[in-house]
Write a structure and sequence with these properties.
alpha+beta, 181 residues, 6 helices, 10-stranded mixed β-sheet, VC0467-like, single chain
Length: 181
């Protein structure tokens, strides 16, 4: 059973270019559907390239998923410091008062290792994710705040898969392209 605050780890042979070897933080899951963000696919743009009226803030921006790619979202470890944010997992909050975020950044109270920005999001309609889990497209896992705030994104899929233990440890060592073996 999937719930908010878990991660979805793409099975190693998923061909979908949006989700290949991705790790997704599930931020909202209920009968109407599911919303999450891909944690390990950065885009080649800075935050200030996307938002001219934002305080100067040198941070990577990530591809959250293929839904509403004209929207910006963020998860952080600021907790109650950022009003209206929603706790997703231990040490991980989603959203919050955007004007206060800009203020905290201007005052240098927020640093790039406190927050991750996403363009777009990953979404599933009612029952869709359950169906994909049934097909074996995803492996569920427990969220660790370090996945967002400490790990290198290009190593996250392997690490999250390895942390599942047993068979998944072996899968985590599979090369991205079998022909490379």
């Amino acid at each position: 059973m999937i719930k908010s605050g878990q991660i979805l780890i793409a099975e190693p042979f998923m061909l979908d270019p949006y989700f290949r070897r991705s790790v997704i933080l599930v931020c909202e899951h209920h009968e109407q559907g599911t919303i999450g963000f891909i944690l390990n696919k950065s885009i080649d743009m800075g935050l200030n390239d996307l938002m001219g009226d934002f305080p100067t803030f040198d941070t990577e921006v990530f591809y959250g998923g293929p839904v509403q790619t004209d929207t910006l979202h963020y998860v952080h470890n600021l907790g109650d410091m950022l009003d209206e944010s929603i706790k997703i997992a231990d040490g991980v909050w989603w959203g919050g008062d955007f004007d206060k975020l800009k203020f905290l950044i201007t005052r240098q109270m927020v640093h790039p290792d406190n927050i991750r920005f996403f363009v777009g999001y990953s979404g599933w309609s009612s029952g869709q994710l359950k169906e994909e889990l049934g097909y074996g497209s995803w492996v569920t896992g427990n969220m660790d705040a370090n996945y967002i705030f400490k790990f290198k994104p290009n190593r996250l899929w392997r690490h999250a898969m390895y942390n599942k233990g047993d068979l998944y440890e072996i899968i985590s060592d599979m090369p991205d392209q079998i022909s490379w073996n």
